Amino acid sequence: MAAGKEAIVETELDPAAIDLGDLERSASFLLRIAQLAAYEAIFAIAPNMPLKLSEQTLLQVIEDNPDARQGAIADVLHIKWSHMTKFVRSMEMRGLVERYVPPNDRRSVLLRLTEEGRAQLREIRPRMRKLDAEAMSMLTAQEHRQLVGLLRKVAGRPPLAEDPPAPARAE
């Protein structure tokens, strides 16, 4: 070895041992890492989903809000209007969504699902609930409710009504 040169020793470092310093207390950083971990878990569980998560999200929002303005949905989902137009057009071309302009407001574009969009969503919704539960399986039911409540608050969404009481067990 040349004088003044030290040997570089590569060691395997356990990812949990990597010090993130102040980032360990950064809610926004941890939120981003948690989002990535959740998506990785979903993709590991179901690698061959028929629709992208973003497409599934849009179908669900349109079904739950038929005839909603395209711009309002874009705002809630934090999608730029120009991107939303392309996104909706793509789904429209695949026969999942239809756009229409109401006669009383020619500036608005309203969205609704097609029969094919509803059929795909009927198939996808239960699977997505299951995938979400599996991806968050490290949480207890109480922790899951708490996390959802906190995330809704951070996202600026109103609180959900309390869960109904669990049904009494038959004895």
UniProtKB/TrEMBL annotation:
SUPFAM superfamilies from the entry?
A: Winged helix' DNA-binding domain (SSF46785)
Q: Give the HTH marR-type domain ranges.
A: 44-144
Database matches in Pfam families: MarR
Q: Which InterPro entries match?
A: HTH_MarR-typ, MarR/SlyA-like, WH-like_DNA-bd_sf, WH_DNA-bd_sf
Supply the name of the protein: Transcriptional repressor MprA
Name of the gene: mprA_1
